[in-house]
């Protein structure tokens, strides 16, 4: 092998980089463990919400402190958190939701809630049609309007030809042009909703949040791993944006109050800290040392308001500002608490009685690099009603002034124009604030009254990005509807931790089984393959950490599968080397041929490419955890190919050059699968009958019994509920029938004290209040089994020490149809791509036909097994996204096996030109039998380890893989190859 030095250097450097990247995951975990220890000391044992708050407080306090010292570099918690490997919801807990911005509400808003009969009839028709269609809502509305409107156009003054849209939609404009304008407005509304949600999530405090738009569908996907307060998150992402315009006090007007408050706070803190010091334990003080908190009573008693708040003092007219103070981001909660205390509010003079302190929406860096945030004093009133609400905004955009500096152009409706004129007239020389969701986005000075309804907001240092943010905020004032959750998955942190523990155990066991088997079967060569395998695992996790990829339970299964493929590559190589040794070619020549293209490399590359193509299709059409599975599968294919071919080769070449006697077997495995000569083709008719009978039984079951569709395919709500005692699923279903009207589906989930409850109760009704109502109904129905568990502790989120909802999933029927359609595209797309690849690679249609029919055979058998047994198995056998991932994995594995066999048939056909084609096929199959059985057994051992010891949520997925791998191995030998033979035009009788 050439360039050995370069490969060694690359492997060493890549290994070191992988270890470096993974180290941050361990370092972040260490800090989080300290945070948990702190929360356990500070919090009350039974109050998970309080413990979560203290945990968050700890992490916030060390966010920018150097908590890790490696000697050569120091890192804060934020530094290591940014570099750690992300964990998916099923491992970490949290919420994943898809929100829908209602296009219908946008259209109604744009039409000024038109009463036009044709318009409203078209909306109703589009509503009905969308339930059974994957087309976007605007297309459906447009289609229905064209059917019924006659000569009425969308640009009619009673619909979209309004004064507000006069600059965008001309009178009597054709419908196609109006539709383009409406699409732009809808996209703008969705973009606005997206920005508002992103701003809220950024302030929520969850690390590594993910928010993205899904095309032009009006859907927004949000993932918040680690979120525990699910109720707060839900309100945060579904509430309508509240844009307000307020008058503000200047720094000069409030600084007197600040100085008086400072004295009062010093007295308060003195009393509070004395009491607190009496309560503190030694252990608590130790943890406070970690946080760098002062314990000295003299220093504590000297603290005051200005310890946390830095007032913006105005000593002259030129220093007057709307910014009244600043504080460290970590101290904002403390400042809020102090300023809202009754004793402090009592110091407010009469003219400041209703003042409301709000923070800036963005932070800035202090001189020492500390993150600071500005504070504003809003002129509120007794009823806390803003001077102007955001619904008066017609449009807003980032533009440039005459000096080419960025500014914001804002237009109001007639009512807003009058209110704005009065507000700006009353505040000339003062300031007004634009506030969204209680955060101040800008508080500019008013130079002259603005009476025309069109306003420019500018600032000396305003950037384009800031101007765009403000324009987005202003447009959010006319956000037509709050986004509603149409799909949600919630996993509690307790269940996430259990999944991690189970995954580590099953993963470790699977690796040990593979390592031991390779040594037992191949001896010292197996040890070299094991070293390459360990390096491969290091590379996979290193890449995942480097690119901040998300690791999920299906992702771990993908890694396990790539381990099987890595072993498969080594098995193919070793079997070819053994063939060379059997033919007395000598060790060095056998190794050379085994690693060559003419040896094993061609089959390895073909097999990996077919699996890679499957992974790409899965990544394109999959969502959530399935994307994670596809990503780890693709990464694993690349690393497996490198380690199996190059790392193993380096080790074996090194041993050969040192004169080692490598036999590629042991005393146990010596002679296995040698001199095999099975006439497979003569048995193909029996195989056809067996396969046909199994498939017919499965198809009959599918059409009679059906398949158990998961919530993500049929719509509904699914809850995993844990109890303090073992439960009877039938009894619970009967009990809940009274609450839900119809009996939900109830099944034991994992342990006997855990149930999975699935219901379609009120799934067609919209609104966050409906979700809350269904959850409350579930609690009421289960109350007799829950002991002293309160509704607050029953709800998902936070750690569960007793009974409660461990995870929750909701999918509305419309998006369930979309998911199902994407899944079908994924399956048939992968089959088409693989068919074309095999046709291109082997240049014979018969090879493609054999491979694709074998894949259909495997898929039908797996579906049949799931239909026949789903009522009897003690684990979930649902047909959902995870099942589709399993099916596509089976497709990839089956093709991998088939391609290896086809490659050997092609090789034998080129060498043994005088043999009958049937003999070529039988000999080729016999020669690969050792590799086929070895690889299949290894893969099955790995999958059985995960199935038996992995998490409950992955058992159905792994069962599908186990059945698929077993059937795929059989079909490669008895279906794919015989069909390829039968469709090849060869004149051979009696075969």
From TrEMBL:
What InterPro entries does the record point to? SecD, SecD/SecF_arch_bac, SecD/SecF_bac, SecD/SecF_CS, SecD_1st, SecD_SecF_C, SecD_SecF_C_bact, SecDF_P1_head
What species does this protein belong to?
A: Polaribacter aquimarinus
Q: Where is the SecDF P1 head subdomain domain?
A: 386-481
**Where does the protein principally reside?**
membrane
Membrane topology qualifier? Multi-pass membrane protein
The organism that produces this protein has a lineage beginning with: Bacteria, Pseudomonadati, Bacteroidota, Flavobacteriia, Flavobacteriales
Q: How does it assemble?
A: Forms a complex with SecD. Part of the essential Sec protein translocation apparatus which comprises SecA, SecYEG and auxiliary proteins SecDF. Other proteins may also be involved. Forms a complex with SecF. Part of the essential Sec protein translocation apparatus which comprises SecA, SecYEG and auxiliary proteins SecDF. Other proteins may also be involved.
UniProt GO cellular component terms: plasma membrane
Question: Under what name is this protein listed?
Answer: Multifunctional fusion protein
* GO BP of this protein: intracellular protein transmembrane transport; protein targeting; protein transport by the Sec complex
| Stretches assigned to the Protein export membrane protein SecD/SecF C-terminal domain | 482-650, 805-984
All copies of the Protein translocase subunit SecDF P1 domain together span 192-248
Offer one Pfam family short name for this entry. Sec_GG
User: What does this gene product do?
Assistant: Part of the Sec protein translocase complex. Interacts with the SecYEG preprotein conducting channel. SecDF uses the proton motive force (PMF) to complete protein translocation after the ATP-dependent function of SecA.
**Localization in the cell:** Cell membrane
Gene Ontology molecular function:
protein-transporting ATPase activity
Enumerate the transmembrane spans.
Answer: 502-520, 527-547, 553-574, 595-622, 628-652, 686-707, 822-840, 847-870, 882-902, 933-951, 957-981
Which UniProt key words apply to this protein?
Cell membrane, Membrane, Protein transport, Translocation, Transmembrane, Transmembrane helix, Transport
Provide the family line: Belongs to the SecD/SecF family. SecD subfamily.
